[in-house]
Design a protein that fits this description.
InterPro entries: AhpC/TSA (IPR000866), DUF4369 (IPR025380), Thioredoxin-like_sf (IPR036249), Thioredoxin_domain (IPR013766), Thioredoxin_ResA/DsbE_sf (IPR050553). GO terms for molecular function: antioxidant activity; oxidoreductase activity. It is found in: Cell envelope. By secondary structure, the chain is α+β, with helices and mostly antiparallel strands. It folds into 3 domains: 89 residues, Immunoglobulin-like, CATH 2.60.40; 102 residues, no CATH class; 126 residues, Glutaredoxin. The protein contains 11 helices and 15 strands. The strands form 3 sheets. It has a 7-stranded mixed sheet. A 4-stranded mixed sheet has the order 4-1-7-8, covered by helices on one side. Strand 2 and strand 3 form a beta hairpin. It is elongated, with a radius of gyration of 30 Å.
């Protein structure tokens, strides 16, 4: 009886250990000797994880992962790897360097799911055939046939798109779904992908793919906060005299915020209009805040002097306020705030600025 209990305890102990680690046993059919490298996708590049010697075409890796992720097997200096989902389990890989996409991977549930996604995808061959037919119809000048083929192409494209969206939504609780969103995010509408990633964040926590997705979508989320009627993000920056100036200190006034730089020609061309605007309306009820994105204070101050700017002048040298808070993608970028600090107009230019501000103050 003691032997039986001991045996059961050993089995449970082994099962427990195996769930916290992986063992990758591989066979490369067309290369017998050399070095095998284990790598994975990092934030900015492919990360080196481990390496081992290839003997008689066989190799083994052991270790543990916190999360299931896409890994790569590279053999010697061959650039095309075998890709697979690594997780804490016993995984076998059989493949060749000549056709790594046909490698057989067993023992990874996440990899099985990725293979299922690829195998059940509506045929790409049909899409490619229709595309070739369209090119031939155009070459022959058969516009009617070309338009007919375009309609078929759209149907085929929508079928694939629908399949991908359904698959991802059904797998919003695993790393495969998250990886697919990273690579195919453009098929979703803005509100749809934000809601999807929120769900994945709830389901997967701080999985690296979810962290990556949230970083990718940060500008989009910020843009949603910057709609007319919402309160403008508060910030504090140094003015031209080195003093801290906060946006909040201008509550009670209408405020025109202008993100600009000395090297921006359209910005400099707009400055005379702002000079005239401030001369007419600047005072207790209205203020201009020009936020320079110049890297150096010297260039900024020289442009201020040349253009005769005399209102609140702030310096955002690292662009953090412009990019992170106001999602500025190009300059000039202008914003009009009401007395409570809420956004009421965006990206006014030219004569439109004076007419809008004049109407507000009258």
């Amino acid at each position: 009886m003691k032997k039986l209990f001991f045996g059961l305890a050993l089995v449970f102990a082994m099962a427990s250990c195996s769930s916290d680690s992986y063992k990758i046993s591989g066979k490369i059919e067309d290369v017998s000797e050399g070095t095998v490298y284990l790598k994975k996708i990092g934030v900015d590049s492919i990360e080196d994880i481990d390496s081992t010697t290839l003997k008689n075409g066989k190799f083994t890796f052991t270790g543990s992962v916190v999360y299931p992720e896409l890994y790569y097997i590279f053999v010697n200096e061959i650039e095309t790897p075998i890709a697979f989902f690594n997780e804490n389990s016993s995984i076998s890989i059989t493949g060749s360097t000549k056709d790594p996409q046909k490698a057989v991977i067993k023992g990874s549930k996440h990899n099985d799911l990725l293979v299922k996604f690829e195998d059940e995808m509506p045929s790409i061959e049909v899409y490619e055939q229709l595309r070739d037919e369209y090119m031939r119809a155009q070459a022959m000048g058969d516009n009617a046939l070309a338009e007919s083929i375009i309609a078929d192409l759209q149907v085929a494209a929508e079928e694939r798109k629908s399949y991908i969206r359904d698959f991802i939504n059904a797998n919003n609780n695993n790393a495969v779904g998250a990886l697919l969103v990273i690579n195919i995010a453009q098929i979703f509408e803005q509100d749809e992908i934000l809601a999807l990633v929120d769900t994945m964040t709830t389901n997967l926590g701080d999985h690296p793919y979810v962290v990556m997705l949230n970083e990718m979508l940060a500008p989009l989320r910020q843009q949603q906060l910057l709609t007319v009627g919402n309160e403008a993000p508060l910030f504090t920056l140094k003015d031209i005299n080195g003093n801290d100036v906060s946006l909040e200190s201008f509550r009670g006034k209408y405020v025109f915020i202008d993100f600009w730089a000395s090297w921006c020609r359209p910005c400099r061309e707009e400055n005379p209009n702002l000079v005239a605007l401030y001369k007419e309306f600047g005072g207790e009820d209205f203020e201009i805040i020009s936020v320079s994105l110049d890297e150096t204070a010297e260039e900024w101050m020289e442009a201020v002097k040349e253009d005769g700017l005399s209102w609140t002048l702030l310096h955002d040298a690292d662009g953090s306020v412009a990019q992170q808070l106001y999602a500025v993608q190009s300059i000039p970028s202008t914003w009009v705030l009401d007395r409570e600090g809420k956004i009421i107009y965006k990206n006014l230019r030219g004569a439109e600025i004076a007419s809008t501000i004049g109407a507000l103050l009258q």
